[in-house]
């Protein structure tokens, strides 16, 4: 793997190097090379799909690193931020834990773990549901509202700095939405 000459890493407000700047810069696209290898091995019919899936995985890693970097000062993961944001958007600042998982499209265990951590941090409280004895409500606290309010502007900077135009971003969203719909995410 060859690297381009590196410029000095960008520094955040605390002086740490940006996560994105610490990754090696390659001279060629390794996914394009994988496509060439796929075709050379006779897998032409799968090459485009392999490139797409591999690219989506890599872009997910890039976005996850950027998001982790901006949420780290708030001691939040993106999953916990999403729970707080969802609760802050709800009418009364509370939702049944099962509904949180449904809306965020994550397994009940993942929601339980996120709510456990948020509760330990003082960002969320659990309360019994007033009309369904089987359900538990996740309720955002004042401290939770304050942290989601503080964490949203730097996170929005990540969202606003995606290296695509609004039109390109919308086109990509529409294509990915088509894949999500085909997988049964929604009707």
Provide a descriptive summary of the structure in words:
It is built from seven helices and three strands; from the N terminus they run αααβααββαα. The chain is mainly alpha-helical and 187 residues long. It folds into two domains: 17-74, no CATH class; 78-152, Arc Repressor Mutant, subunit A (Orthogonal Bundle), CATH 1.10.10. A three-stranded antiparallel beta sheet has the order 1-3-2. Mean pLDDT is 89; it is low at 1-17.
Question: Could you outline the blueprint of secondary structure elements for this entry?
Answer:
Blueprint: H1 30-40, H2 44-71, H3 78-89, E1 94-96, H4 97-104, H5 108-121, E2 124-128, E3 136-140, H6 142-160, H7 166-182
Antiparallel strand pairs: 1-3, 2-3
Helix pairs in contact: 1-2, 2-6, 3-5, 3-6, 4-5
Task: Describe what is shown at a glance.
The protein is mainly alpha-helical.
- The end-to-end span amounts to 44 Å
Give the uncertain stretches in residue-range form.
1-17
**What order do the SSEs take from the amino end to the carboxyl end, as H and E?**
HHHEHHEEHH
What's the main sheet like?
A: 3 strands, antiparallel
Number of helices: 7
In helices, the fraction of residues equals: 55-70%
* Strands side by side in the biggest sheet: 1-3-2
What keyword list fits this structure?
3 strands; disordered N terminus; elongated; mainly alpha; 7% strand; three-stranded antiparallel beta sheet; 187 residues; Arc Repressor Mutant, subunit A
């Amino acid at each position: 793997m060859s690297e381009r000459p590196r410029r000095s890493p960008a520094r955040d407000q605390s002086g740490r190097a940006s996560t994105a700047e610490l990754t090696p810069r390659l001279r060629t696209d390794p996914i394009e090379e994988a496509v060439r290898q796929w075709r050379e091995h006779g897998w032409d019919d799968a090459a485009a799909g392999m490139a797409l899936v591999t690219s989506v995985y890599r872009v997910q890693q890039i976005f996850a690193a950027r998001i982790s970097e901006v949420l780290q000062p708030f001691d939040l993961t993106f999953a916990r931020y999403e729970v707080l944001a969802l609760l802050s958007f709800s009418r009364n600042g509370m939702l049944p834990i099962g509904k949180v998982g449904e809306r965020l499209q994550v397994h009940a265990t993942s929601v339980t773990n996120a709510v456990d951590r948020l509760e330990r941090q003082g960002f969320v409280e659990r309360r019994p549901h007033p009309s369904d004895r089987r359900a538990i409500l996740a309720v955002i606290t004042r401290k939770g509202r304050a942290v989601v309010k503080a964490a949203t502007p730097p996170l929005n900077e990540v969202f606003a700095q995606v290296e695509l135009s609004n039109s390109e971003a919308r086109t990509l969203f529409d294509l990915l939405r088509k894949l999500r719909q085909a997988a049964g995410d929604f009707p």
